[in-house]
């Protein structure tokens, strides 16, 4: 008999989630049935997209229902398996929910190799964020050697990988992040050509100073004003990949749109949204590339690990929106 | 000795151009030099883009300078030629300026065949607007048979051609225009599947009614609120071609951006700006296609011709912004 400690959605938040949003409950799990696996969760991924899953709107996945366990990616160890593909002790990843134990279908789990990288990295540079960076940069934004690439949320899970991949690809890379410490990390540790602290002043002015010829690729994780600022600095035939808009996810009134979108016309530029799930068939290609870079030390995979288990979930999630994390934010369970 | 009556830019307008914007002056033209041609202008094209040329901002062409003759496309007859490619009596088109006579370099002129269509049509369906429709629809928005195509400014020079080309290509076509009369013209005369009068209520609601499965292609001539409305109705992998934003050209404060741009992400959709001039090498391909359709009666090329010569230019231009024209607005000189 396994008791799972799980975080349920108690009420839809208006603005930032708070204590009324969540309810932590202990629930006895059913024994795994045929094809199912009981896992012990070791790490949970905290993602900006989680905020979107709380809204009762049509989107690319259904919203989390009131009373349901909060949706989350996680890494886990198999405890008991009724799927021949898995044995106790195996390390796996998948959509497990915010819980310390889960019973999931084996076909929903992916084995992860802890000899290649620790579980936390399988939630970061080798997980969804790394895949998002790779396909967004190469397939959506079509970054080419010589391009000036700008990425916002540059010290985050996705942005830090985008910048390093672009740099390795022969691009000139400018990161936008909040605070001097993050900016120093980008240029000193990750090899970005420049970093802009958006708290220090208008981003378009800072961009014009470091990229006077304009921007070829913008990988947008932040949205809002930042997208509007970068639109003002586009170069001919620039490509914008819309990955997210963390600055707007907790807005309590409709955030303004990018007023300078007509820069797309003047510069014959384009802006495309994407979802990493559409590239699922090709994940192995990106995992192979990124893991090789981690192995030879040319790509820094950094995770910001918060302790405290599922009880710490509510507070840890808020760190994403205050910009408290550097690198991939992970909750140790 | 030729006296040209020309319209000069007297002052940059703030908002709608008015009498202080223009000055009409008679000027003696120099004799054409080697390679130059003297033409008598018969028709001038009135284009929404003209408003943009009046602003002192970096764009795809330099702004018209204060005191300069207003830039305009036009159709003309050759009076005297020092370019062996042209003879007196030849019909030509090109950037002639708002004038009744002009001396231009022969290599800046294109011969037009008045047996194929009248001069007014060479400024409309067979001119820039037609080229814009053709390349925007097929090359930028990549319309495919079966697509639901929405076009705004649908009763205008570009929109009316976009809709007819899309229909002939096997698309389902919805036009957005202002007023019942224009809407009736779109469905009854041009064969659009549906027309939405944007003055009658929120466009996204009307669109959901006529296109409950959503929009595959949006060809945007209007911008502003209309773009934002259509963003709310996109289908998976929709393509938006940004051709213009006539609703914002006379704005006296920065118009809001499209707040629903994150629909691009949810729907993995894209939005691309374009300029017809980039397709110049391929104009003959589009001219051949459109002129064949005009010849066999399957494409209606309609021009709204205003009399009064260059002195009527100032008032005629405003008709574009009040939506007074149906089809291509042309000034007879």
Automatic annotation (TrEMBL), chains A, B:
The protein's name: NADP-dependent oxidoreductase
Stored Gene3D superfamilies: Medium-chain alcohol dehydrogenases, catalytic domain, NAD(P)-binding Rossmann-like Domain
Molecular-function annotations in GO: oxidoreductase activity, acting on the CH-CH group of donors, NAD or NADP as acceptor
SMART domains for this protein: PKS_ER
Residue ranges constituting the Enoyl reductase (ER) domain according to the UniProt record: 15-331
Keywords: Oxidoreductase
Cross-referenced InterPro entries: ADH-like_C, ADH_N_2, ER, GroES-like_sf, MDR_fam, NAD(P)-bd_dom_sf
Family matches, as PANTHER family: PROSTAGLANDIN REDUCTASE, PROSTAGLANDIN REDUCTASE 1
UniProt keyword Oxidoreductase, yes or no: yes
Organism: Aeromicrobium endophyticum
Presence of keyword Oxidoreductase: yes
Pfam families listed in its UniProt record: ADH_N_2 (PF16884), ADH_zinc_N (PF00107)
